[in-house]
Design a protein that fits this description.
- The protein contains nine helices and 21 strands.
- The protein is α/β, with parallel strands linked by helices and 375 residues long.
- It folds into two domains: 3-46 and 149-217 and 319-374, FAD/NAD(P)-binding domain; 86-142 and 219-316, D-Amino Acid Oxidase, subunit A, domain 2 (D-Amino Acid Oxidase, Chain A, domain 2, 2-Layer Sandwich), CATH 3.30.9.10.
- Strand 11 and strand 12 form a beta hairpin.
- Helix 1 runs parallel beside helix 6 (148-161), helix 3 (65-79) packs across helix 6 and helix 3 crosses helix 9.
- The radius of gyration is 21 Å and the shape is globular.
- It binds flavin-adenine dinucleotide.
């Protein structure tokens, strides 16, 4: 016997948790399904930290971030938990690096306050860095840290407080279009149906779409972050060391010591292509060797031998833009996928966008760069 709901969300990562929070908040009888336990470490939303920032090299993203900040703060007051840690951050680079140049341009375009730090300023303010002569820093005070694992549990908790039903260890194995929406079957044989189903399955999205005759060019990569021990811990506390993004051919990003005494650093993109079920959890030694060398050069007061390595999955679209849309002819299904390693900070905004679409209260038309059929 199939159980019916107003909306079903598949996946309790940051996107599914956000969608369930906003859908239940809109008064819909919402079912949230998670194949593992909330907070598991097999997908993309786990770990101690994610960067939240206004500074982007794209107006498309900067424009939507103030609303994302506001929603994270709404979640903070609703759950009584502190989530947005505005410690400040810098974009390091120079005008001849397109992404750095565009980031500065976007900050100016949206009149977002920032400070330009010359290499001399950088050496004085952040002596932890080895600063090349032509390097410039864009300091932005709203850049911060989101405690990823705690954010996901706060979203799911808030969704349940608003009336959503959570089923864990509930793996969806089949989706079936119906006249009035979709029905789905769980691994344990249970069936559920709703006029609206949100597919927020992260790196597991592709295999769930195929049987529906729909496909997205999603590439799953296993990325890794490394934790380094400072020789002088106090120098890397948030009041003395920023969140940073270094704009080179590849992005290198990092965090001050956050809820611990280690400095987290990673390369953005570049991990081996894999699938959600075949990934190894094994560190990529070549990338690690590269990162050790980067630390020796750029942050010499860190011990270059990492204390801990964490792996995590990106689900990449070819253009690195998100998919938040319905496949044509399948209006009952909203797919939220392809967050390409930069979606966490947008979680609640994605949730709100989905809920507005489901309730017909959308404040903006679906953006063509988030379209399902754009590829
Ligand atoms: C190393 C790393 C660093 C990052 N840094 C940042 C950052 O600093 N700032 C930022 O904004 N973003 C960052 N990101 C990106 C961000 O973390 C992701 O974009 C985001 O977590 C994607 O969330 P998701 O909910 O789509 O995916 P997931 O968290 O993977 O959630 C999908 C969920 O669906 C469940 N699921 C899948 N299939 C089924 C099924 N059949 N039945 C039931 N449940 C199912 C899975 O178990 C999973 O829990 C980073 C990502 C990584 C990997």
């Amino acid at each position: 016997m199939s159980k019916s709901w107003d909306a079903i969300v598949i996946g309790a990562g940051v996107m599914g948790g956000s969608a369930a929070w906003r859908l239940a908040g809109a008064g819909l009888r919402t079912l949230l399904l998670e194949q593992f336990a909330v907070g598991h470490e097999r997908g993309s939303s786990h770990g101690p930290s994610r960067i939240i920032r206004l500074s982007y090299d794209e107006a498309l993203y900067t424009e939507r971030m103030p609303r994302a900040y506001a929603l994270w703060e709404e979640l903070e007051s609703e759950t009584g938990s502190r989530l947005v840690h505005r410690v400040g951050g810098i974009d390091l680079g120079s005008p001849d690096v397109p992404s750095w140049h565009d980031t500065r341009h976007t900050l100016e375009q949206f009149e977002i306050p920032f400070e330009t730090l010359t290499s001399t300023d950088l050496r004085r303010r952040f002596p932890q860095f080895t600063v090349p002569d032509n390097e410039i820093g864009l300091w932005q005070a709203d850049t911060g840290i989101l405690p990823a694992g705690r954010c996901v549990s706060a979203l799911v908790r808030a969704a349940r407080q608003r009336g959503a039903t959570l089923l864990e260890d509930a793996r969806v194995v089949a989706l079936q279009p119906q006249d009035d929406g979709l029905s789905l079957r769980l691994e344990n044989g249970e069936e559920h149906s709703a006029p609206q189903v949100v597919l927020a399955a992260g790196p597991w999205t592709g295999p769930l779409l195929e049987p529906l005759g729909r496909a997205l060019p999603l590439e799953v990569t296993q990325e890794q972050v490394a934790y380094f021990r400072p020789r002088h811990g106090e120098a890397f506390q948030p009041d003395r060391f920023p969140v940073f993004i270094r704009h080179e051919e590849e992005f290198v990003y990092g965090f001050p010591c956050f809820e611990g005494d280690l400095v987290k650093i990673a390369l953005h993109h570049g991990g081996p292509v894999t699938t959600a079920d075949e990934r190894t959890f094994e560190p990529d030694e070549a990338a690690l060797t590269h990162l050790r060398g980067w630390v020796v050069t750029h942050l010499p007061s860190l011990d270059p031998e990492p204390v801990r390595i964490e792996t995590c999955l990106y689900t990449n679209t070819p253009d690195r833009d998100f998919v938040i849309d319905s496949p044509s002819g399948l209006d009952g299904l909203i797919v939220a996928a392809g967050f390409s390693g930069h979606g966490f900070k947008f979680g609640p905004w994605v949730g709100e966008t989905i809920a507005e679409r489901v309730t017909g209260r959308a404040s903006e038309a679906p953006h063509p760069r988030f379209a399902f059929d754009r590829f």
